[in-house]
Amino acid sequence: MRTAIITDSNSGISKETARDWGVFVVPMPVIIENQIYYEGVDLFPEEFFRLQREGKKISTSQPAPDDLLSMWDSVLKEGYDEIVYLPMTSGLSSSCQTALVLAAGYDGKVQVADHHQISVPQKNAVWDALQLAKAGVSAREIKEKLETTGSDSIIYIGVNPL
Questions:
Q1: Which has the closest alpha carbon to 38: 75, 71, 8?
Q2: Residue 115, CA distances (Å) to 45, 104, 110, 147 in order
Q3: Closest Cα partner for 15 from 47, 42, 37?
């Protein structure tokens, strides 16, 4: 059974790392001055922080359902039997809830893990999922494991000016 691991760009996984690890990354939309950019595609951290310092109006959104469905369909057509999708935590976005609703149409082939992580802990969860998949663990079991251990991580964030 081939299990694909998919996450979103909130995990901080670059295109290069995704390629090296063999995982897929959904770029998160960022709206700047009413124009949509995609994290890691046409918006990178240096530019984002520059625009933020300039006082530009910035907001975020979840991936469009069509973008998510297109990625899932494409990955399944590549020969994967099932998918584990690790979106950012449901505590910060409705992205996870949307994915859960969309996954219902895939007859169990898409498992959405609400692992309550973002950033580095999300990246670590992707790595864990990848290792479990390589060991032959099913998508459903990977999802359950990630949801069970999701609260075991703590992240501390420091801001340079402090």
A1: 8
A2: 25, 18, 15, 5
A3: 42
Q: What does the alpha-carbon distance between residue 61 and residue 17 come to, in Å, rounded to a whole number?
A: 24
CB atoms within 10 A of CB 143: 22
Domain extent listing, the chain:
3-27+64-152, 29-62
pTM of the model: 0.85
Helix then strand then coil, % of the chain, to nearest 5:
45, 20, 35
Can you read off the two tokens belonging to residue 87? 């979106």
C-alpha distances in angstroms, 139 versus 35, 58, 133? 36, 35, 7
12-50 confidence digits (pLDDT tens): 898 899 999 999 999 989 999 999 999 888 888 888 889
State the CATH class of domain 3-27+64-152.
alpha beta
If you compute the radius of gyration of the chain from its CA atoms, what whole number of angstroms results?
Answer: 16
Residue 44: how many CA atoms within 13 Å on its side-chain side?
4
Q: Which amino acid is at 58?
A: I
